[in-house]
Every structure is written in C-alpha cells, then in structure tokens.
C-alpha cells in the first residue's frame, strides 16, 4: 500500500494567497460600502414617501390644511413632527423628543439612516415652515398663516421637508434663510415635495431649481 503524502504550503505560497485576498478586499469593500449607502438612500426615500402619505392624511383630516410647522402660545405648543407622527400611530408622539410608547415604526420615519449621528430631538429632517404655516408669540420668530394644500398652484415644485437640521437647534424647520440641508447620500439630499413625490438633489441643483419662491404666485388667493 502506497503511503499518503500531505500537501504542505510553503511560506511563499501563503504570502501569495494573503496578497490576493488583500487585493480582492480592496476592490470589493468600496463596492460594498457604496451598495450599503445606496440601500440607506433608498430606505430614506421610502420613509419620506410614507411621510408624504401621513401629510396627505393630515390634510384630509384637518380641512385641507398642511401640517403647521410650529404653534407657540402662552399655554401650549405644537410641532409638525407630532402632527405627522399621530397620523401614523395613536401611541406616543413627540414633544421635544419622542414620548415613551412611540412605536419604532413611527419614529424611524423621521430618522434618515445615513444621518444617525445627526439626530436633533430624535429627528434629522427639516420642515418648510412657510409651506405649513408658523404661528409664534410676539418676539419668538416669523409667523406665517396656515396653508391649505389645494391652494398650492405648483405642488410638485414646493419642498415640504428634506434631509437636514435646524441651525438654531430649536424646532427642525427652515425658512430659506435658516436650517442646514445635509447631502448625506453621495453628495445628494432626499426631498419630499408637496405633491408627495420625493426628489434627490445636489446642492447646485437645489440652488438652481429651488430659489426663494414668490409666495403670492404659488398660493392662489381665494
């Protein structure tokens, strides 16, 4: 009976194998990272579309009005986040942070997965307070009357919310001179428009197509 001779790898052969693995890793890891980021961007856009549905539910519930960005009175306060959250669940809610009992499925809608290190009060999105209206006590900021969606003459061109944070670290809203959009998705930001479709734009694209609008034209006067 002939004896069995085991194959023994030499040190040189092992080094060659390790070098090949290293080369393959350097080629594959960037592709895997890009695939992961693409998946996060798609997830974020899907969450925004669900917020678009919540916005439409709010409009249907409240006589055609878009969610009010903020309302501060002497005795109470209101924010767009809680308004939309309650359109997705009657449990929990938001009041300068997520309340105990808020479903994960609700709060995750307001958290872009590519910006988990940018959460402010549990949210990393910005809302357009000129679109929904902003009611403030004297001395607390700009006030804009509440708006009805059907009076918007070009809903597909008006931004409702998008990736970003409030510069003032207060209420997650923007007014064309406040707020900071975050281009988290390969240099692009996801943006929900008033007709509930989601756009993905770079900063130059936003600067070109989303200049400060003439609100007397956009909003049809009754």
Q: What's the quick description here?
A:
By secondary structure, this protein is an alpha+beta fold.
Description:
With 222 residues, the protein is α+β, with helices and mostly antiparallel strands. The chain has one domain (42-218). It is 34% helix and 14% strand. The chain has helices at 11-61, 80-85, 104-107, 129-132, 203-209, 215-218, and strands at residues 70-72, 77-79, 125-128, 134-135, 159-165, 173-174, 180-181, 189-193, 198-201. Strands 3, 5, 6, 7, 8 and 9 form a 6-stranded mixed sheet that branches. Strands 2-1-4 form a 3-stranded mixed sheet. Strand 1 and strand 2 (77-79) form a beta hairpin.
């Amino acid at each position: 009976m002939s004896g069995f001779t085991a194959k023994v790898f030499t040190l040189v052969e092992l080094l060659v194998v390790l070098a090949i693995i290293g080369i393959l890793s350097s080629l594959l890891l960037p592709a895997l990272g890009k695939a992961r980021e693409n998946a996060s961007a798609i997830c974020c856009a899907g969450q925004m579309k669900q917020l678009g549905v919540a916005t439409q539910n709010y409009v249907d519930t409240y006589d055609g009005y878009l969610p009010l960005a903020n309302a501060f009175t002497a005795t109470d306060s209101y924010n767009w986040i809680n308004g939309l959250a309650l359109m997705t669940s009657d449990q929990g809610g938001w009041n300068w942070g997520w309340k105990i009992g808020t479903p994960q499925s609700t709060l995750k809608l307001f958290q872009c997965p590519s910006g988990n290190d940018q959460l402010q009060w549990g949210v990393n999105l910005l809302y357009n307070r000129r679109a929904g209206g902003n009611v403030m006590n004297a001395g607390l900021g700009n006030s804009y009357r509440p708006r009805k969606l059907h009076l918007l003459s070009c809903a597909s061109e008006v931004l409702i919310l998008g990736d970003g944070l409030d510069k003032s670290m207060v209420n997650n809203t923007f007014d064309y001179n406040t707020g900071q959009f975050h281009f988290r998705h390969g240099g692009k930001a996801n943006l929900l428009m008033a007709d509930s479709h989601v756009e993905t734009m770079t900063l130059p694209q936003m600067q070109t197509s989303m200049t400060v609008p003439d609100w007397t034209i956009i909003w049809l006067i009754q």
